[in-house]
Structures are given as structure tokens and as C-alpha cells.
Design goal:
The complex is a heterodimer of chains A (847) and B (146).
Chain A lengths: L1 E5 L10 H10 L4 E4 L13 H10 L3 E5 L4 H8 L6 E4 L6 H7 L4 E3 L10 H10 L4 E2 L3 H7 L3 H7 L6 E4 L1 E2 L14 E2 L8 H10 L5 E4 L8 H14 L30 H15 L3 H15 L2 E10 L4 E8 L10 E3 L2 H9 L3 E4 L3 H6 L3 H7 L3 E9 L2 E13 L8 H36 L3 H16 L1 E9 L6 E6 L2 E3 L13 H9 L3 E3 L12 E3 L9 E7 L5 E10 L13 H54 L1 H10 L4 H27 L5 E5 L1 H12 L1 H6 L7 E3 L7 E3 L1 H18 L9 E8 L2 E8 L33 H11 L3 E6 L4 E8 L11 E2 L5
Parallel strand pairs in A: 1-2, 1-10, 2-3, 3-4, 4-5, 5-6, 7-10, 24-31, 25-27
Antiparallel strand pairs in A: 8-9, 11-12, 11-16, 12-13, 14-15, 15-16, 17-18, 17-23, 19-21, 20-22, 22-23, 24-26, 27-28, 28-30, 29-30
Helix pairs in contact in A: 7-8, 10-11, 10-15, 11-15, 15-16, 15-18, 16-18, 18-20, 21-23, 23-24
Chain B lengths: L2 H5 L2 E5 L4 H12 L3 E5 L2 H11 L3 E6 L20 H12 L5 E5 L4 H4 L8 E5 L5 H17 L1
Classes of the chains: A alpha/beta (847), B alpha/beta (146).
């Protein structure tokens, strides 16, 4: 294996390529792969001979070329044949030509391009045996594939390997994924596994470190990766002294030749920086204005470019009263495509019939007397491969005073400012997602909140969220702004690969579809209910766990035209970035809630299973108890009331099962009531006291230790069973925590009507409650500080349940005296004497 | 209600569980009722369609396998099968008393039963066989008075 380094980390425009080669050689690499356009290398490297001289002088090998178009690279190479030429797909016209000319074309699967997944690459490689393979460890990881499987796929056809690491911290959206590329060993790709696999295959070709951007400067990044390679035993050359590293790469890369007056430059920069804090919708207009002032223009139009469909969405126009250019979303015209493919500032003469023909708004040319267009493709600051924006300037004069390098430089400023505005929006909605998650009571609740948040963030007409079911074989709708299904009930889901949703799930990639009905995999099974029913514009975004693993898909329909500022009503990659950021924040919370709900459901089933044999036991006991002969037999045979004992133990078990069920209910849905008019003394307290008989006897107490004061409440609208549980829990607490001495145990239950409330108190003369613990003891799962040392049984749920039930009735409970006696007081609203608590289920009693 | 009268009264008990119902059935039979037990909803519905006029009362569990008569989705994987059976029995007869005897406490499920005078919902944990016999007798008497 031979280690090489790719030059993309220095950005698309490098002023001093000699220093780049010096640094690579000094760091010990054996070869270099060049990502910049071949005609941009400058110095003496404007042709292949000059480039080879420069490279070989430094003891390096030219591994391959990756910049510009394939034709440009082929032409540049003349007779020279590098190890490979980087390609992202098979061009039916050009690729066979290249192969015939002796070039090795190496296929590099790339996120958000035609060949994205390993399965795509496998198919293409199988169809074109002359194609070589250049897997990229980070791109494959983000796509959900295993880079080790990639290198093992067709080892004999590996032309090289791009070794790269990646962190999911910035999400997986088209706009932001590239920010996650990071130095080897600092991400989640585990490149050492790939090296181990390559060693096993006895791989001897190039391993190229290729990292699009870095935060620590290209030289420092290169050295860090070299150190990692050395630790992992890749044979680097000895490290040589290097020229002092340049400052961390200035992504703006100011041109050497400047014609722009300093004050004009300062005005532009000020405008663009100010625009970045205005919010995404408004900042584009300000940016277009800034360009129009910098280069005196009839018109400036700023577009968002989406390579997936070669679409352009109009973001802003200056001056903004020009209406004719308002074609908000359109297929990129020939001129724009050319500028984007060349990745450089391109001038077009609109008087030329050929250029005029390709320009979409020909009426505008005549109406405004436009003669000249300058297209400035502007790359994502974090991903030079990604043309994000396109600024089309229509200057007054045929030749403008600024150089192309300056225009590109100003374009880069604009990109940074726009990226800042987008970043701000992603952060804002990501924070909102966390807040909504904290307020959510259930997975369903969270999904509804997130759905609303996405709809607000994108300002679109409809949103639905689909999740993969537990068995992992279908996508099911879980939250929606409104959805119509066009299939029967039992078909309302998407299988993997089925329809556009299923395809996004299968491929784990965002899809922007301006008209879904024209998409290849459109199934027409369902659609969001929207105002503009004739529009079928969609954005599909996978919901992914941060470490990887797709759990669902969000579907958004019909972006609205912005009401304030901005023009385009097309879903853009910016929108995809925002949805991805929201999803990244919400998914961990969702996973926790869903796991909790699964556990509670399992608990509920377990409790139900416990209940069934318990009912059987109580049934058997009841039958024996009612049979006089059996009771007599037990009395005769044993000197102990076994039957009575079993009866009271089973009664206790029934109350514990009730507690478990109530806990499950409280955790998942909140306590729901079934109320009826109830006499508390007779129908709640008396049965509850009977139910603690077992506990009393265990401690050597009896029901005589419990006194009930004389109070007479009218019948109150309460849930009789739940209130029996309240009294049972309060009494059982007192019994469990009391002193061992039976003569000291006393519980008093009383009541009074006071301050428009019915008040019930429970007093005991046990060890009491520590000061400061009055509220803590009501928390779920919290037990008193001395419970363990006193070996008191329990899970810390009894008082929590008591509070849930009392509050569900509109009441409250608190500790009103700490010790001697300890007093718990339940306060119930007076209104319960006339009517049920609000928003509950009312049902006639069973008696 | 005397034994002779009781024995002419048929009670349909629909519950897939064996153990707890043994004691309910014995208590009801000792009280003179004739109990027809069905452990599958399909059998129970078949029986009810043929004998609805003769039934004095139906005892019904909530959580049961949904059988062929219902889909997993409609029965919520069995959690609500009893609700569906209740609706089908009501469709056959608007007057037969129905006693829902269940371990389920879930108010969302119990709320699916109509609030009507000929229906009662009792939790098994709160009802011994003797108490069940009392409840059954009261419901049948009430139904016959109307």
C-alpha cells in the first residue's frame, strides 16, 4: 500500500501550488492526486509536462486528476497516463473513448450524485468491466454502507482507496454533511478496519487521504493524518522539514490582482455580513443588492442550484421591481449548466444567437437591452464539489472592471454569509426541537410537535412523518398535518423500495421532487391534504439516528412562496438541511420515548399475566371459603387459619397488581378516572382498611390500631377503586415505616369540610418525615432516606401514585405535619359533591 | 329467582382463559344457571347467532385472540377483541344484558363500551365468584322487569 494525498483540502483556488507540493512531499506522502482544475494550477504547471516536472522533482508520483470535466482532464494529460482518472459515473460517449485511449477510469461513489450507494457502484461495475473502483470510506459510511465491504467487493479492480473519516455531528443533509469530514481517527468511520481489510487482500495500490475541509489548516491536517498512518504502519517517507505552515486556510483566498476599489470592497463585505444576520429569507435580497452595487448592473439574479434535477430556484433579484425574471423554479438553462460544470466565473455574450438561444428569459434580454451575462457559481464553503448558489450578473458594460478571480472571491464571501444565515436557522430549529422534546409526554406527542415544527420551519402546506415499524419491514404514518390514502386500510404502509418513500428509506438519501408524479418510483398510495392540490412538489428526508441507522422518513409537500422577501417556492437543499437538523435533535429523544413505551407495554402485559392466575387463586379461595365443610376441615386439621391467610395475601397481591397497572397508566397516558358518587367512609376507607389486614397482621397489629374519626362527607364524584388504592397506599406506607413496637403503632383517619374543600387526613405516630423531604417523597421511584436501612419493602411508587390520583381529581396532597404525628392531608375541591372532575370518563357504578 | 327458573336461563361466557373461569362457571352452575362457555370469539359468535333469543345474559372478557372474525388491527392485536364482540352481540340483540368481566383496567379500552343500562363492567380482581353470581342475578332480574 502506498499513501498519497489529495489537494482538495487547499480549496478550489490555489495561488501557490508549489508550496502545496512541497508540503505533501515533506509530510512523507508518496503521491499526490490533484482536485483543482488542471488549467488553474498556475506557475509552470499549465501543462502536463510542467506538472510532472514539478511533482517528480519532489519525489512524488502523480496519482490522478479529479478537477474540471473528464474531457478537460483527458486533454490535459496528452500522452501521460496517471494511475487513474476520478469519475462519478459512466459517460456513454466519453468513457469508452477514455478507456480506449488507455486511461483507467476509477468510479468514486459520491453522496447525492448518480452513484451514491455501494449497490449502485456494484451494478455499474458489473455492467462495465473496464471500469475501476475508487471507494471513499466516508461517503460510503454516510450513505449507510460498510467501507470494508466496499473494498472486499472487487479487490482486483481497486484503483485506489480514498481514506477519509467523518463525524455525524453536523447531520447528513446535502448542505451540511461535508462539514463532518474530519482527520483520520477522529470520526466514526474506523479507517483502521479498512486498512486491515486491505492488508488481508494484499492490496498494493494507492491509499489516498482526501479531506474536503478542515478546521486546523491544510498542513496541520495533513500531518495529523500522516501521524495516524504511521501509527497504523503505512510506509510513509521520512518527515522532512517543512516551510512554516500557512495560516489556517483562508477559504476566501483573496486574489493577488485586485482592481476593486477598497471602499467598494468594504461596502460589499459590510452588506453581505449584515445580510447574514437578517434571516435566511431576507439575506438573499440584500446579497443580490450588494452585487448590483459592486458591479453596476441592469440586473442581478441569485439562484439556489439543486443538482439532483438540475433545477434552479430564484432566491432574489436586484433591483427587486423587475418582474419578468420571476420564474421561481425552473430547469437550469444551458448557460448556467456550463458555468456550473466549469466551476468558474463564465462570461456569456447575449448577442450571440447560440447563447441567446440557451437563455430562458429571452423577452427580458430585449426588454432590458441585456448584452452580457456573467455567471458566478458559488460553492458550499464546506464542500467545494457542491455548487450551491449561482449569481447571474447583467452588467451595464460589456467588460467589467473586476477580474474573474475577484468576482469568485466576492462570491465566496456571499457563500460564507449565506451559510452563516442557514446555520443560524438550523441551530434555532434544532434548539426548538429539543424544547419540544422536553415537553413531550409520549412518542406520538413528540412526533406531532416535530411535524408542526418542520411545517413552520419550511413554510409548506403539508408534512407527514413515517416510521419504520418494530419488525423493520414497513414504513407507517405516525404524524401528519392531514393525509389521504388511496388504498385499502390494510395496505396503508410502504415497503422498502416501494414508492418514493420506500426508495428514500432504501437508499437513505434526501429526495427533492418538484413533481412527484413524474418520478420513476412514484406509487400514488398517499398524499398530504393541501390547499394547492394540483401541485405535487415534495421533499423527502430520512430520519436517522446520529450514529447511523434510518428509523423513518419525513415527507413535506408544496413549499409556499415566502411572504416577506425571497421569491422561490421550491424546496431547496437549505430546507433539507433544516429538516435534517430538526430530525437530528429529535431522533434521540424519540428513541428514548419509544424504548420507554415498549418497556411499559411489556410491563402492562406482565401485569395482566400476573392478574390472571391471581383471579384463579381468589376464585379457588372463595369457593373453599364458602364451603362450610372445607372451612371446618381446615380449622380441625390445622391450628392456623390458612384459608384466611391466603385470602388476605391474595387481596394484598391484587392491590400490588393494581399499583403496577396504575403506574403503567400514569407513565404512559396520565391517570384516567371512572367516577361515580361515592361515600368515602363506607365505600373507600372501610374496604381499604380491610385490604391492609395482611400487612397489619405481619407486623403484629390489627385493625384496632386504625381509628376513623366521625366525619360525614356527602357522596363525592370520585373514582372509587382508585381512591381505595390511595387509602391503601397511605396506610401501607404508615404500616411499613412504623416502629416495631405494636403498642406504639396508631393511625388516625379523619376528615373535615374547610375552606371550600373536603379535607382528609392520615396521621401516624411513626418515625416521621425529615425536614426538606416533604416533596421529595412524592417523586417517582424515590424512597425515604431510611427505607433501606430499615429494610422496608417498596419501589418508591406508592406516594407518587397517590398524588397522581388525587391531582387527577383536581385535588392535592401534602405533608402537613412532619412528626408526632406525621400527617398527610388530601384536599378535594368542593365541586366534587356536585359533579365529576373536568375531562374525565364518567360511568355508572358497579357495586 | 329459584333453581328451576335459573336452570332455564342460559348464560354465554366468552373468555379464552381457562383457569379463572372454572370457578365462575361452577358458582353460576351451583346457582342454577346453565353456562355455555366459548373460548374462541368465532365459536362464541356462531353460537350467539343461533341462540341469541335464549340467552339470559352474556359474560364477556376484553383481551382475547381476535380469531377469524376480526383483524389484528381492528382488535388492536387482541387488546380490544371484547369491544368488537360486544358490538356484534348488541347488533344481534339490543336487550340481552352484557357483563364485561375483565382484568383490564385501561380506561381508553373500557370507554369503548357504551354507557347503557344493560351493560356492566367489572374487574375480575374485584369480583369473587360469589359476587359474580349476585351481579348476574341482579342484572337478569332488572332486564326481565323492563
Amino acid at each position: 500500500m502506498r499513501p498519497g494525498f489529495q489537494t482538495i483540502i487547499w480549496g478550489p483556488h490555489v495561488e501557490d501550488f508549489d508550496s502545496v507540493l512541497d508540503a505533501i512531499a515533506a509530510a512523507g506522502y508518496h503521491g499526490v492526486e490533484i482536485s483543482q482544475r488542471p488549467d488553474s494550477l498556475g506557475n509552470d504547471m499549465h501543462d502536463i509536462a510542467g506538472l510532472l516536472r514539478a511533482i517528480e522533482r519532489r519525489g512524488l508520483t502523480l496519482i490522478g486528476l479529479a478537477g474540471g470535466t473528464l474531457k478537460e482532464r483527458m486533454d490535459f494529460c496528452e500522452d501521460f497516463r496517471p494511475s487513474y482518472l476520478y469519475v462519478e459515473e459512466w459517460d456513454e460517449h466519453l468513457s469508452p473513448q477514455a478507456v480506449q485511449m488507455g486511461f483507467r477510469l476509477a468510479l468514486h461513489p459520491h453522496l447525492f450524485k448518480a452513484i451514491h450507494r455501494l449497490s449502485d457502484a456494484e451494478e455499474l461495475l458489473a455492467n462495465h468491466p473496464e471500469l475501476w473502483f475508487l471507494p471513499d470510506t466516508a461517503h460510503l459510511t454516510v450513505a449507510g454502507d460498510d467501507p470494508v465491504k466496499a473494498v472486499e467487493l472487487m479487490p482486483a479492480r481497486l484503483a485506489g482507496v480514498h481514506l477519509k473519516d467523518w463525524t455525524p455531528d453536523f447531520g447528513r443533509s446535502y448542505h451540511r454533511y461535508a462539514r463532518g469530514f474530519t482527520e483520520l481517527g477522529t470520526g466514526s468511520v474506523k479507517p483502521e478496519r479498512v486498512l486491515a481489510a486491505l492488508r488481508k487482500l494484499d492490496y498494493r495500490e494507492w491509499v489516498v487521504i482526501e479531506q474536503d475541509t478542515t478546521r486546523i489548516g491544510p498542513e496541520a491536517s495533513m500531518i495529523r493524518s500522516a501521524e495516524w498512518l504511521a501509527r497504523n504502519q503505512l510506509p510513509l517517507k521520512p518527515l522532512r522539514p517543512m516551510s512554516p505552515p500557512t495560516a489556517p486556510r483562508d477559504p476566501l483566498c483573496p486574489p493577488r490582482t485586485r482592481r476593486c476599489p477598497p471602499e467598494a470592497e468594504a461596502r460589499f463585505l459590510h452588506s453581505v455580513i449584515s445580510a447574514s444576520v437578517q434571516g435566511l429569507a431576507d439575506c438573499y435580497g440584500a446579497m443580490a443588492e450588494a452585487f448590483a452595487k459592486l458591479v453596476p448592473c441592469h440586473l442581478v439574479s441569485l439562484w439556489a442550484y439543486s443538482p439532483a434535477k438540475d433545477l434552479m430556484g430564484l432566491l432574489a433579484v436586484a433591483p427587486d421591481h423587475v418582474k419578468d425574471v420571476r420564474s421561481t423554479t425552473r430547469k437550469a438553462d444551458g448557460l448556467s449548466i456550463e458555468a456550473i460544470a466549469r466551476q468558474t466565473v463564465t462570461h456569456f455574450n447575449l448577442g450571440d444567437p447560440n447563447h441567446r438561444e440557451q437563455f430562458l428569459s429571452r423577452d427580458l434580454i430585449d426588454a432590458m437591452g441585456l448584452k452580457h451575462m456573467v455567471s458566478i457559481p458559488i460553492a458550499n464553503p464546506w464542500n467545494p464539489n457542491h455548487t450551491w448558489l449561482l449569481a447571474n450578473l447583467f452588467p451595464h458594460e460589456q467588460s467589467i472592471s473586476l477580474t474573474d478571480a475577484e468576482l469568485a472571491y466576492f462570491g465566496r464571501h456571499l457563500a460564507l454569509a449565506a451559510d452563516r444565515a442557514l446555520d443560524d436557522r438550523c441551530s434555532y430549529f434544532s434548539s426548538r426541537a429539543n424544547v419540544e422534546a422536553a415537553r413531550s409526554r409520549s412518542a406520538k406527542d413528540l412526533l406531532d410537535r416535530i411535524r408542526k415544527l418542520i411545517q413552520e420551519a419550511l413554510d409548506c402546506e403539508g408534512v407527514s412523518i413515517f416510521l419504520v415499524n418494530d419488525l423493520g419491514h414497513q414504513l407507517e404514518e405516525k404524524a401528519t398535518s392531514g393525509i389521504d390514502w388511496f388504498v385499502a386500510n390494510d395496505r396503508r404502509f410502504y415497503g422498502k423500495g416501494e414508492g418514493l418513500l420506500g426508495k428514500v428509506w432504501e437508499r437513505n438519501e434526501t429526495l427533492l421532487a418538484p413533481d412527484a408524479t413524474h418520478e420513476r418510483y412514484y406509487a400514488g398510495i398517499s398524499a398530504e391534504r393541501v390547499e394547492s392540490t394540483d401541485r405535487h412538489e415534495y421533499l423527502f428526508s430520512p430520519l436517522v439516528r446520529p450514529p447511523g441507522g434510518i428509523i423513518g422518513v419525513t415527507r413535506c409537500r408544496n413549499k409556499r412562496a415566502p411572504s416577506a422577501g425571497g421569491w422561490s417556492n421550491m424546496f431547496s437543499d437549505q430546507d433539507a438541511a433544516i429538516v435534517d437538523a430538526i430530525g437530528q435533535a429529535a431522533v434521540p429523544h424519540l428513541s428514548v420515548l419509544m424504548a420507554q413505551e415498549r418497556r411499559v407495554k411489556a410491563l402492562g402485559k406482565l401485569v395482566h399475566e400476573l392478574g390472571v392466575p391471581l383471579v384463579a387463586v381468589r376464585g379457588a379461595i372463595d369457593e373453599m371459603w364458602t364451603t362450610r365443610e372445607v372451612r371446618a376441615f381446615f380449622r380441625r386439621t390445622f391450628d392456623y387459619d390458612y384459608l384466611g391467610d391466603i385470602r388476605s395475601w391474595s387481596e394484598l397481591m391484587a392491590r400490588l397488581v393494581d399499583n403496577a397497572e396504575l403506574y403503567q397508566e400514569g407513565v404512559t397516558r396520565g391517570i384516567r378516572l371512572r367516577v361515580r358518587p361515592t361515600l368515602l367512609r363506607k365505600q373507600v376507607i372501610a374496604p381499604a382498611v380491610r385490604r391492609v389486614e395482611r400487612l397489619l397482621r405481619n407486623r403484629g397489629f390489627s385493625q384496632d390500631n386504625i381509628t376513623r374519626g366521625s366525619f360525614n362527607f356527602p357522596a363525592l364524584y370520585v373514582d372509587q377503586n382508585l381512591f381505595q388504592q390511595v387509602v391503601f397506599n397511605l396506610l401501607s406506607n404508615a404500616i411499613k415505616h412504623c416502629f416495631a413496637d405494636p403498642s406504639s403503632f396508631q393511625v388516625e383517619i379523619g376528615g373535615e369540610e374547610r375552606d371550600a374543600e373536603f379535607q382528609l387526613w392520615f396521621r401516624d405516630w411513626g418515625p416521621g418525615i425529615e425536614e426538606g423531604m416533604e416533596e421529595v417523597i412524592f417523586l417517582e421511584g424515590v424512597r425515604g432516606p431510611h427505607a433501606e436501612e430499615r429494610d422496608v419493602a417498596g419501589q418508591g411508587l406508592g406516594l407518587w401514585l397517590v398524588r397522581q390520583v388525587v391531582e387527577a381529581h383536581g385535588g392535592r396532597i401534602s405533608v402537613t405535619h412532619l412528626k408526632n404525628p406525621t400527617e398527610f392531608r388530601v384536599f378535594l375541591p368542593e365541586s366534587l359533591a356536585q359533579r365529576a372532575p373536568a375531562a374525565i370518563i364518567t360511568r355508572e357504578a358497579t357495586t | 329467582m329459584n333453581s328451576t327458573e335459573e336452570s332455564s336461563r342460559v348464560i354465554l361466557l366468552i373468555d379464552d382463559e381457562e383457569a379463572p373461569n372454572v370457578f365462575y362457571v361452577r358458582a353460576l352452575e351451583r346457582a342454577g344457571f346453565r353456562v355455555e362457555r366459548r373460548t374462541s370469539v368465532d365459536d362464541a359468535l356462531d353460537f350467539a347467532r343461533g341462540a341469541i333469543q335464549k340467552l339470559a345474559l352474556v359474560i364477556l372478557d376484553v383481551m382475547m385472540p381476535f380469531g377469524r372474525s376480526y383483524s389484528a388491527e381492528d382488535a388492536d392485536d387482541g387488546l380490544r377483541t371484547g369491544v368488537l364482540v360486544y358490538k356484534d352481540i348488541r347488533a344481534l340483540s339490543s336487550t340481552v344484558p352484557i357483563l364485561v368481566l375483565t382484568v383490564v383496567r385501561n380506561p381508553d379500552i373500557l370507554a369503548c363500551f357504551e354507557d347503557e343500562p344493560r351493560l356492566k363492567v367489572i374487574r375480575k380482581l374485584d369480583c369473587t365468584p360469589r359476587q359474580l353470581v349476585q351481579q348476574v342475578g341482579e342484572m337478569i332480574r332488572k332486564a326481565e322487569q323492563h
